[in-house]
Predict the 3D structure of the following.
Amino acid sequence: MNHPRVTLEQWRTLQAVIDFGGYAQAAEKMHRSQSSLSYTVARLQQQLGVPLLRIEGRKAVLTPAGDVLLRRSRQLVDDATELEAVAHNLDQGWEPEIRVVVDAAFPSTCLMASLKEFVPLSRGTRVQLNEVVLSGADEALLEGSAELVICGHVPQGFLGDQLIEIEFIAVAHREHPLHQLQRELSNKDLRREIQVVIRDSGVQLKRDVGWLGSSHRWTVTSIEKATDALVGGLGFGWVPHHLAKRFIESGELLPLPLREGQRRKVQLFMVFGQAERAGPATQKLATILRNNCQAT
C-alpha cells in the first residue's frame, strides 16, 4: 500500500502562505519563523516533484499546478479536521449513527424540517431513517433495531411520550359510486365497495386497523400509494387529513358522509429504544422533533 509522502501540516502551511499573502505574514499568524515555512513549502514541492509557487517581486504566487493542488488540499484538510472532531465526539459519547423508525402517518414536512434542523448540530452523526406501518414500529423496539421510534402503539416494557395527534378521514373520488348515493352512508354501504387498505409492514405482530372486514379490498404498501389509489378512483379509505387536504380542496377527493366514523384520531408517541442509554445526539434529535410537533 502506498503511503502519502506529504503531511497535512505541509498542506496547511502552503494554504497559510497563500491565504495570508506571503511567507512573512503567514509566519506571523502561525507563530513560526519565516525560514521554517519556506523550508516546509520547499520540501513539499520536492516531494511532489511539481513546482507549486513562483516568486513575483516579493510575493509568492501559485503556479497552475499549485492552484489545482491547493484547492484539492483544502478538502483534504477539512476532511481530516472533521475526522478529528468525530473522534472527539465519539470519545464524549456522541453516537456515530442514530437509527430512526417512523410511522408512515407522521407528517413528512415535520420530519424533514426536524432533520434539516438537526444537521448543523449533528457533529457528524448519521441518521438511518426507516418508515414503517402499524406493527413495524413495535417490532423495531422489541428487536432493538432503533434508537428512536415514532409509533402509534407503545409496546409493553417501553415508555413513550405523546408526540402528535393525526386525524384520518374517510374519502373517495368525487365520482365514486358512494358519493352518487347522495345520502348519509352506513357500514352496509361501505361493505359493497372496494376499500383501500395499507399493509402492515411488521412481520410478527401484524394487525388490521380500519379494515371493515369486506372481501372487497385492495392492499397497498404505503399511505402515499393509498392516497394515489383513492385519487385514481380505485376505492374508498381512510388517510391522514394532512395528505388528503390538497385533494379535498381541489375537489378530486370528497369526504364520505358517514353516519359515524368519518374521522378518527390517532396518537403517535415517541419512544427511545433504550431510554437509559440514549446518547446526546438521540436526545438532541428527540428534542427537535418534540418542539416542531408542538409548533404545528
In short: The first strand starts at residue 53 and ends at 56. The chain is about 45% helix and 20% strand. Residues 64-91 form the longest helix (28 residues). The chain has two domains: 8-91, 95-296.
